[in-house]
Amino acid sequence: MILTVTLNAALDLTYHVPRLTPHASHRVRQVTERPGGKGLNVARVLAALGFETAVTGFAGGDTGRELRALLAADAAGVTDALVEVSGNTRRTVGVVDESTGDTTQLNEPGPHVGTAEWDGFLDAYRELLHSGTKVVALCGSLPPGVPVGAYAELVREARTARTPVLLDTSGEPLRRGLAARPDLVKPNAHELAGITGTSEPLRAARAAQQRGARAVAASLGADGMLLVTQDGTWSAGVPERLAGNPTGAGDSAVAGLLSGLAEGLPWPDRLARAVALSAATVRSPVAGEFDEQTYARLLPSVKVQQVDTP
Amino acid sequence: MILTVTLNAALDLTYHVPRLTPHASHRVRQVTERPGGKGLNVARVLAALGFETAVTGFAGGDTGRELRALLAADAAGVTDALVEVSGNTRRTVGVVDESTGDTTQLNEPGPHVGTAEWDGFLDAYRELLHSGTKVVALCGSLPPGVPVGAYAELVREARTARTPVLLDTSGEPLRRGLAARPDLVKPNAHELAGITGTSEPLRAARAAQQRGARAVAASLGADGMLLVTQDGTWSAGVPERLAGNPTGAGDSAVAGLLSGLAEGLPWPDRLARAVALSAATVRSPVAGEFDEQTYARLLPSVKVQQVDTP
């Protein structure tokens, strides 16, 4: 089983309006509701690829109930191992302006998680690590109340359980998480620059590695990905320029890396999966989902190149 | 008991953001949740004034459950006589830009109401009319699936039950509702112009009266209100210019008219209540609520003037 952790899961709402005009009133033409939060997106991609996948994190209140109902109704078949919390799961609202195709995003902060709730989660997480979890991914932002060192703690627990752990977050939670020595981190160029202070991707990825990560996979948008490991450094991209919606492309990259980790594939193969899945997500008509045909077509064409160590 | 009908009730969300930038991502600083929809707003004002008040209409799904929980928790003590529907109660999202104080509104369309659900509502409504309802107000837009002549039907039922009925809606539902001869309609200047084709308020109000309403109370924003009845015509306003948020001012005006109707007050007194409540809502720091002290201060100062019939 592959486990993903989403401490600040969300009920994702997408609103379509003919045109977004600040300070005006809009009738929303179309409403879409999805279970959201990075780890849930990663899990859905993994489940669609056929991997047995479970999600944990927090869910609470009426919005939490709605999120869990949507997850249960999803044909992909992700196992719900979310932990009940007293506050309401946050909503995110994406407003799609149909005249431009652009999205304006509004993200609620999330429920306040109490100390007892955090301790309860740690117990549930340990239990999951010891009951069939092959690899685990820790994804996204922290809800209010959760200690800023939360990911460092979850990384240490995974290492104690000898479970490979991938960390995908940003800012101070990433900085602290790195020090706990995760097997892999997947920052984007912006997040990487934020914690290392350098915007040159290769130097920044090596700096992140020196801070504790055993491997660093940096997603560079249309430029593909860069992977720095103890066994070598590789870059990869797709041979064609893809137009589309980049929402969820980073989460699909995590799913690709994680599935390769679960299957014990060599690093270049993990990277190829991540790049192909990411590109197939950009091309999908539905934001955050990947196009299976595009994935199947792109995977053999991904160019993985070894980068010489200076 | 005063009854208000809200066929398209809503879970009203208010998001505060430092500044709303189209096509950017925003962290919402503060989230407020309220039971919403015109009839629910009217009912809360009436309950705060001490009137025994019930609300009916539709509520469904997780959003409907959340709305009902908020209504039950409200200290004002409105009786919940909402009818269960299979679809989800709509949300409305008001995004407050803290840099300007302006609000951008996004309104979901509402659940689809099936024929059997509409028939079920009619039964519940008839039952309420015959079990202690002194006056009834029909408020707001229609959800998808409800016949466009719905308000005309509800007006006829009220007249059959000899219950005075106020109609507050717009467009085609208002046009059809007028023909069923409601006791009072409360359009704003824009809605009035929309159905009568004339923008001069007095002529438009008389035209609406000729289309079937026994009385027409037109809300004219900062210019106060105009009331055309079979007993005479009056205009009224407050002696001071009030700055503030006009959200909910129209609903408070309905509450003022309705409470005066329930108590059998003369028309000028009903109008004075409507104008004072409306102004006290503009002055309230919380959108849609009225400031009780401002109401008590303004009520005796409202100037009601008879308008000579040409």
From TrEMBL, chains A, B:
Alphabetized PROSITE patterns for the sequence: PFKB_KINASES_1, PFKB_KINASES_2
Keywords, ordered alphabetically: ATP-binding, Kinase, Nucleotide-binding, Transferase
InterPro entries assigned: Carboh/pur_kinase_PfkB_CS, PfkB_dom, Ribokinase-like, Tagatose/fructose_Pkinase
Domain Carbohydrate kinase PfkB: 12-288
Gene3D superfamilies in alphabetical order: 3.40.1190.20
Superkingdom of origin organism: Bacteria
One matching Pfam family: PfkB
Leader peptide range in chain numbering: none
This protein's record includes keyword Nucleotide-binding: yes
Keyword hit for Kinase: yes
Family: Belongs to the carbohydrate kinase PfkB family.
PANTHER family reported for this sequence: 1-PHOSPHOFRUCTOKINASE, 1-PHOSPHOFRUCTOKINASE-RELATED
Name listed for the protein in its UniProt record: 1-phosphofructokinase family hexose kinase
Organism: Streptomyces axinellae
